[in-house]
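Recall that a protein's primary structure is simply its ordered list of amino acids. Everything else, from secondary elements to tertiary packing, is in principle encoded there. The following example makes that idea concrete.
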Amino acid sequence: GPYSAVRHGRFKLIYFHGDRRLELYDLTTDVSESRDLSRSRPADLARMAKLLTARLKEAKAQMSIHKGTGKPVPWPDQLIG
């Protein structure tokens, strides 16, 4: 399904649009992206979600449309509560 991703420094964030899921990886210790740090590193998750949102908006990216509502899925930083 559709997704967006950003890498900054040692971290990589992936936003899966279909189930509105964020995954965070530390590529210096986990090159294979097998250990999702999204729950254990909330501050890094929030920072990366803001960065991805800014880059998507800067690129004027069109977000996927949710089939149930007909509206675009939320920006990544809107998923951080």
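Residues 42-58 form the longest helix (17 residues). The beta strands are 3-8, 11-16, 21-26.
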